[in-house]
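Appendix B, Record 12. Input sequence as logged:
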Amino acid sequence: MLWTLWTLSLLSALIQFLACVRREAPLSSFAKSFLFLTATLLLSPHLSLHQCTLAYASLTIGLGVALTFLMYLLLKSPKQLFLKTVSLTLFGVLVFFCWGMQAFFVMNEERPVLKVALTGKIELKQLEWKAPQGSLEKRKLPHYEVVLKSVDDEVLFSQVLCGELVAIRARVFRFTRLFNTLGFSSRYQFELLYNGYNDAQSYNRLPIQAFSIAELSRHTFWHKFFWKMWSGAFMQQQHFAWLKSATLESNYFPLVDANQRPIVREFLITISSGGLSAIPSS
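Logged structural output:
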């Protein structure tokens, strides 16, 4: 979607540039482009607020190109100096306002990416394990169902796990503020769903279970190349000026309460410029 908005910017600049060549009033061409872009965004309800702001900022850049060229055409007319100065000042203020709003939305928006549903269903399963400093154990343990859904409530993955906690691990790319301002938001790739416990003693004597959820993320050529760069940055083997951090992040959710009763709740995993976080789903 980001590249689509940049394409709109270039097309808008080209249209208004040609309008100035034809000596058409730049505000008239801008009004036409504004109405066209508004209609396009209304037909795209999936766009977030900061993406719409970026689109209008791109349109403003097109207006700036048109006004700049118009000032060049009027250069031989000293009487238009005041009009050109006012136009350039208003354009600068509008551009900085639009890009400031764009940066604000990118840096503060929490974009929902996944739902974690704790259904409260219990299954008793026979497990056999050996703690690092213990003997072989074999007994039935309660397992709790965890369902991963899309933001639109489509079931993507379901699994039962033992333990007191369940966690989701993901790779996260965080961009620098400059790239946030240009419309690039943090990137993520889910990797694992695994169980956990509330204290170190339980981790050392009870079984650990982990399941791959990599299929929830896209695996096109571009994404494979992108996450290969993440590996280099995470291992401190490469450095990229546009990358703020490459991290592994986990979000934990309680499977049971203090009385060991299963919890029935839904959580929403979000991504922002600060990385992954989770909030209760309304």
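The beta strands are 111-130, 136-149, 155-161, 165-175, 187-196, 210-212, 243-254, 265-272, 275-280.
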